[in-house]
Design goal:
Blueprint (H helix, E strand, L loop, with lengths): L1 H6 L11 E3 L5 H8 L4 E3 L9 H12 L7 E3 L8 H6 L4 E5 L11 H7 L4 E8 L9 E8 L6 H23 L7 E4 L1
Parallel strand pairs: 1-2, 3-4, 6-7
Antiparallel strand pairs: 4-5, 5-6
Amino acid sequence: MRALVEDMTGDHPARPCVVLSNQADAGGIAWAKARGIPTEVIDHRPFAGDRPAFETAISAALAPHRPDIICLAGFMRKLTGGFTDQWAGRMINIHPSLLPKYKGLHTHARALEAGDSLHGCTVHEVTAELDGGPILGQASLAVDASDTPDSLAARVLVLEHRLYPAVLRRFTQGDRSPVQMQG
């Protein structure tokens, strides 16, 4: 989120209108507030077992800010088709693997366990299918023999901070052709 916001200056066609989290203590909330960006927090716990109600609360919190695009960054909640369909073609996410490989969690450990020689990250449109929307960009790097899940995660994070802003810049201009980067 920080990399996206920091890139949205000058000739960038987008500006942040709100930062929303399901965790009040998320570092991005304090960071955004310190920069004068409006924030919203919708705790998912009171909605246990009722994703549609949680998503209705998210929509209500977003409505006054009138976002054109939603960029997920570290939002670790699965969204239903009822929500994703409302934002079809206007919601993107970054995932720490070279999709379609390793949807879901523990991507770095899974890449190492599989003996992959390449790993990286993917920006994709969000659909109701977990990590299954159209790919908008990927950045890859060579896996080192000495990599651990933590070291690989740290190296991929550097790529995420380059890839996501580059994809968002193009996406806001209607360009959905995939971006490819090497690390």
